Amino acid sequence: MAWKFFNPNPCNLLVGDCTVRAIALATIQDWHTVHRGLSLLSDEMCDMSSSNRVWGEYLYIRGFRRHIIPDTCPPCYTIRQFCNDHPYGIYILATGTHVVACKDGDYFDTWDSGQEVPIYYWKKEE
Questions:
Q1: pLDDT tens digits for 41-69?
Q2: How far from 70 is each of 55, 67, 77, 87, 118, CA to CA, in Å?
Q3: pTM, to two decimals
Q4: Residue 70 belongs to what domain range?
């Protein structure tokens, strides 16, 4: 279980698009498709595309369900540990300031975010 570099940004920019990147991997869509979809939903909901409410709705429509991570050891349960505990499946983890995709035990990001502490996650339901 490890960090894998992943940057689907078509211009290879390292910008504040972690939500778009994570959703692109988890939904097997390209960056533009996710960005446009979030933008349209954002406009419809009168909220920012990066808000939890908008991207959560985007995932919900696509069969993902949200789960809260138990509050038993918040500072010590990391993204890396979550991935070790979940070696199969597709997940999107949310911290207070970041979003990252996990697939089959690996986490995909433009930087090694394994030490970040997730608060909740979305799981693709079968």
A1: 999 999 999 999 999 999 999 999 999 99
A2: 22, 9, 10, 19, 10
A3: 0.94
A4: 3-7+14-124
